[in-house]
Amino acid sequence: MKYLGYIFALLLLISCNSTTKKKEVKKEMVVKKVFPEIKPNRYNVAFLIMDGTFNTELTAPFDIFQHTIFRKGIKPMNVFTVANTDKPITTFEGMRILPDFNYLKDSLPKIDILVVPSAEHHLDSDLENKELIDFVKRVDKEAQFVTSHCDGAFVLAKAGILNGKVSTTFPSDIDKMRTMFPDLDIRKDVLFVHDGKYITSAGGAKSFEAALYLCEYLYGPEIAKSLAGGLVIDWDVEKVPHIILNASS
User: Fold this and answer.
1) Domains of the chain: total
2) Were both Cys, which of 67, 69, 103, 223 would link to 219 (CB 3.0–4.6 Å)?
3) Is residue 61 part of a domain?
4) Up-side HSE of residue 238: CA atoms within 13 Å toward CB?
5) Residue 155's domain is classified under what CATH number?
């Protein structure tokens, strides 16, 4: 009986060690990142997100652009998010979003359209983020369009890509933007401005209008109205205060 007790204790010890090793192995397991499918023959649309991004400026254009995949006879859009981290970002309103790509280390698809939604610190600390500003500068070199909503225009201005262009931003921040960037032509009393390849909007719920305008520019009024109808939006670009300058053909 004495020996049986020793054997039982030994077996128990081995079992405990085995369980501990299994737990250690699980801890060491690496989770492989899964990237979104980037389908060919589509516009690649990147949404630049970070902590403090405002929900509406992100989700409004995201909804409009993503719905292009359900329209026939057009070149639809691959929509995805990019950030400077692999960890979830937390929007201003508390939504947690896992970025699709980390622009600091991932190999990104060529970006045709860059969307810069507004974020909480676009008037201060984000403008001092060199990696962020350099990313916008790099994308701008090849992108067909660069768009901003609300205070996202401050990021474009800091990157220097609005020099010589007309732009707008969140109505109550226009004077701040004029003070911060005195050489820029920043307009009031409009909901969006299209100058060259840049589209800047007042943001908020009017982010829908700026996104619908780009779709009308790319696909024509019928597709834009169809996209708007799917989201129960009464769309008529002529009823939206806006400015169009030097729009490329």
Assistant:
1) 1
2) 223
3) yes
4) 1
5) 3.40.50.880
With respect to residue 91, please indicate whether it lies within any of the assigned structural domains: yes
How does pLDDT run across 124-171, given as a tens digit for each residue? 999 999 999 999 999 999 999 999 999 999 999 999 999 999 999 999
Domain that holds residue 179: 45-245
DSSP helix/strand/coil, 111: coil
Burial class (CB in 10 A: 0-12, 13-18, 19+), 146: buried
Type of residue at 198? Y
Which pLDDT belongs to residue 247? 78
Residue 2: predicted pLDDT: 52
Q: What is the reported pLDDT for 10? A: 45
What pTM does this model have? Answer: 0.87
| Side-by-side strand order, sheet with 43-48 | 101-102, 77-83, 43-48, 113-116, 145-149, 198-201, 192-195, 242-245
